[in-house]
Each structure stands twice: as C-alpha cells, then as structure tokens.
Design brief:
By secondary structure, the protein is mainly alpha-helical. It has 6 helices and no strands. Helix content is about 65%, strand content about 0%.
Length: about 210
C-alpha cells in the first residue's frame, strides 16, 4: 500500500484498489512513473457522509468494470481452449450485466467498450471540472487522468478493429486476445491510479457541486 493509500484509509476508512502486479501484454501505452500525485489534505480536512459515499461509489463502479473484464477474459480463454462452444458462451454472456439481443463474442466486447466510453465521458465532462474547481491542487492529476482517458479510447478502438478482423477470420482469436490484453493492463492500472488520487477528493467534495 502506498503512502497515499495509507492516509486515505486512515482518514476515510476506504481502501483504494492497488495496481495490478502482473501484466498480460508487453505493450505499454503510457509511462506510469510520470503520473503526478495530488497533495495530501491537511489534518483539519473533514469528510462528510455524502462525500464518503461518493468515494465508495467510485470504487464500486470500478469493481463492476473489473469483474466484467475478468469475465470477458475468461470467456475468451475458454473459447480459445475449445472448452466452451458458441451456444454455451452465449448463455454465459446473457447472464452478465451487459446484455444484448444477439449475443456474440464481438457484441459483448463492443457493449463493454461502449459502457467504458460513457463512463469516462461522464468523468471528463462533469466530475473532473467540479473537482478541479473545488481544489486547484488536483489540476495536474486531473489533466493526467484526462490524457489517460484519451489513450484508453485509442485502446478501445484497437479492440474494435480486432473484432472486425475476427469477423474475417473467425478461427483466429490472437488479435482479439492481444487487444484485450492491452486493454486489461491499461484499464486496471488506470482504475487503480484514479482511485488512489480521487477517492479522497470525492470524499470531500462529492461528484458534483452542492452534493457535500
């Protein structure tokens, strides 16, 4: 646990998710060592019940995306190993939170990517400006998170292209596997960084102006 995670847990009782310890792809989409860290609030800072709910909710939303990503990876692996046929895969996917009327391996990936895009759009378009206005010390962190959202958008585009290629060559899952591996590494790293930096500010200021 980092120093930031220690003070967050000590002051709020919330535990940001640590970054992943293993990688799935050799491709690195950014340099994690250049990520800025927001200044720690002074000892007089108080966290309200509504604010703490906002910080907790961010972790819960992120956990949902982590769980769905794990399930997508599991289904890909089972299809690759011929341990799950298309009919069973569709049944498994249909039981997930993300639903479609016509389940295919491509549709679940596309639905998941769309959901992530909407989540990041809400953060960048509404939550981030509110936090930046509430605490100017968050400016560098929010700028970096915005940049990472753009990178993840490009990673999602690569997943989309891999799905197009899969339609042409349905017997070859290697392209989709690599694209999902890159997405996994980038997304898990990003979510952990975002929690580390924003759970505290959200617990002080809420998601939007006037919430706390």
């Amino acid at each position: 646990m980092t120093d930031t995670q220690h003070w967050l847990t000590a002051r709020t009782g919330l535990v940001p998710t640590p970054p992943p310890q293993t990688r799935h792809s050799a491709t690195e989409v950014w340099d994690e060592s250049t990520r800025p860290t927001a200044p720690e609030p002074d000892g007089e800072t108080r966290f309200t019940g509504r604010g703490l709910s906002a910080g907790k909710h961010l972790i819960e939303v992120h956990n949902h995306y982590r769980a769905e990503l794990t399930r997508v990876r599991d289904i890909l692996e089972q299809v690759r190993a011929n341990a799950m046929d298309v009919g069973v895969a569709r049944g498994e996917l249909n039981a997930m939170t993300l639903r479609s009327n016509n389940w295919t391996l491509g549709s679940i990936c596309q639905s998941y990517c769309l959901s992530l895009t909407q989540h990041h759009t809400m953060e960048s378009g509404a939550i981030f400006p509110h936090l930046r206005a509430s605490d100017q010390g968050l400016a560098a962190v929010i700028e970096r998170l915005d940049q990472e959202h753009q990178v993840i958008h490009d990673v999602l585009e690569a997943v989309d292209q891999a799905l197009v290629d899969l339609v042409r060559h349905p017997e070859d899952l290697s392209g989709v596997q690599e694209a999902v591996d890159v997405l996994t590494d980038a997304l898990l790293s990003h979510l952990a960084y975002e929690e580390r930096e924003l759970v505290g500010p959200l617990s002080r200021f809420g998601f939007f102006g006037g919430q706390v």
